[in-house]
Amino acid sequence: MNFLAFLCVLVGLCGFKTFPSKQRNSYFALSNYSPNFLILLKKICYMKGMTFFNNLEDLDAESKYLVHKAKDATQLSYSPYSKFEVGAAILLDDDTLVVGANQENASYPLCMCGERVALYTFSSQYPGKKIKKIAVVAHKKHHKELVGATACGACRQVMAEYENRQKSPIEIIMFGEDGRWIKCESAESLLPFSFKTPNPIG
What we know:
Layout: H1 3-14, H2 21-33, H3 35-47, E1 50-53, H4 61-73, E2 84-92, E3 97-101, H5 114-125, E4 131-140, H6 153-166, E5 171-175, E6 181-184, H7 187-190
Parallel strand pairs: 4-5
Antiparallel strand pairs: 1-6, 2-3, 2-4, 5-6
């Protein structure tokens, strides 16, 4: 991969506004010339640390159990505005189960993703324990068929924070837009350049 191609991947991942004008022009030139090539480069960067499965039954027993618990958690969703129900299930290192679902508000910025509801519940109720893995699923209201829904950037950042705190990886299971199940070996594989403060307090 040459420097220009690598730069284009960084631009695509991080946002072109942070780069000087000449580099932005190079990005657009390559995007217009070969958009599929750029998409491929992005996928190569993202696929590190990920395994894909065509069917739920192909996952290990523990992961399948967690996916089913995440499905059950969608019933706890309060989503009258998006009508999009998200459930998350967390398995701790002592096999304790923690679940959460998205909670919406008429003031949209106050809405909370299902993953973070589960993560904050874990943090407040089980201090000192570690997260082994988390499963995330979603479906439309009044529909049981799952739709592709991977963790948003904010949830990935929060996962990365807990992973950094416990100093051990958190495995993440999600259902992708292409109909395949995705197993990520760590939050870092989902957000390789997560924000970190050098000297966290507490």
